[in-house]
Amino acid sequence: MPWKRLLTARWMKIPVFTLCLVPVLLLVWKYFHQDLGANPVEFITHATGDWTLRFLAITLAVSPLRRLLGLPELVRFRRMLGLFAFFYGCLHFTTYLWLDKFFDFSEIGKDVLKRPFITAGFAGFVAMAPLALTSTAGWIRRLGGRRWQMLHRLIYVSAIAGVVHYYWLVKSDVRKPLIYGAIVFVLLAERVVAARRKSAAGRARGAGANLAAIK
Ligand code: HEM
After folding, report:
1. Which atom of ligand 1 is nearest to the CA of 158?
2. 36, 158, 165: which to mutate for ligand 1, most atoms within 8 A of CB?
C-alpha cells in the first residue's frame, strides 16, 4: 500500500517536523514584517494558545486514526506531535509570563488563584510537563510500559483543561471552544468504545478457550 510505504519511510519525519514549525515561523515572519496587528502580545497569545490546543487534539487523534484506518505506522509521529503541543504551550505560557506580566510572580500567583480561566490553563500546562519529560524510550523502560501509559493519560487532563480554559476566557461567542470541546469529546469517546470492544473480544476468546478445554 503506497500510504504504508510513505508513513514508514525514514525521511517522512522531516516534512512532518517542518510542517509543525510553520505556525511559529509564520509568527516570526509577521513580527519582522510588523504584521501582528494593533496588539501584538494578544495576537501571539491567541495564536500560540490555538496551536497548543490544535496539537493536543492532533496528538489525541493518532490512536483513533491508527485503529480506523488500520495504519499502526502512524504511532511514529505521536511523540513528535505531543512535543510540539508542549512547545506551543511553552511559547503561550512564556508570552503570558514575559510579555503580558513581565515576570511579576506575585501578580501571576494571584491570577492563577483568582481567575478561573488562568487556573484551568495553568493546570493544562502543568499536566503536559511530565509527558514531555518522560517521552523518551529511556523513560518508558524506567517506568515500565504500563505505568508509562497510565502517566501519559495526563494528556486527557491537559486537553480537557485547555478546552475549559478557552471556554471560560471567551466573553460571548463560545462557538470555537465548543467545537474544540466536541472534537476532544469524540477523540476520548472513541477510546472508551475501543477499550470496551477489546475487553469484550478478550472475554469471548476466554470463553472459547474454556469451551475447547471442556470438549
Ligand atoms: C494546555 C494548556 C493551554 C492551552 C491548550 C491554552 C489554549 C488557549 C487558547 C485556545 C486561547 C484562545 C486563543 C484565541 O482566542 O484564539 C488561549 C488564550 C489565553 N491563554 Fe491559554 N492555554 C493554555 C495554557 C495557558 C496558561 C498556562 C496560561 C497562563 C498562565 C494561559 C493564558 C492565556 C491568556 C492570558 C489568554 C488570552 C486571554 C484573553 O484573550 O483574554 N494559557 N489559551
Report:
1. 1
2. 165
